[in-house]
User: What shape does this take?
Amino acid sequence: MTLPEVRAAIRDVPDFPKPGIVFKDITPVLADPGLFDQAVDCFCRRFGADGLDLVAGIEARGFLFAAPLALRLGIGLVPLRKAGKLPHRVVTECYALEYGEATLDMHADAIRPGQRVLVLDDLLATGGTAAAACRLVERQGGVIAGAAFLVELGFLDGRRLLGNRPVFAPIRFDR
Ligand code: AMP
Assistant: This one.
């Protein structure tokens, strides 16, 4: 099994943020520098030799892994943010969530055509968020080198929405 200690630290919070949702709380991983390091290192090992130009981190928990990864790989970080948070000119994609609807913004000049981009988030659920992130990158001419997540909820089949893009998730829960 990949990252067994990190997996064991992830905490289930039932009925958050809505009844019926079991929220996978990764804050115990962040609180332990050894576990946090294992998580970031896992992304580093998988993508370190992939010739990435940028990591695109998804607000908010994606930022927590994207920032240390970008520094370790010596590449730039592009924040993908919820509606109305970015100050400069943006491109926008709408998507459906496991619990609601949302919009993701990216600065229109964040990516140059042909740049290889890793989209990163803490968790893959239905895939709507990550698919919107990939569309933003691709609309600006970026190439999706991969979509990476610490955790995948396998029973929601989020990979389907990501199509042929390479998906990496070291920790998978099947219920
Ligand atoms: P989705 O678009 O359905 O793949 O949802 C993924 C996004 O919502 C990620 O940014 C996750 O942080 C968050 N998310 C969705 N479901 C959960 C869950 N059960 N536990 C923790 N985060 C979740």
Helices lie at 4-9, 27-31, 33-47, 61-73, 128-139.
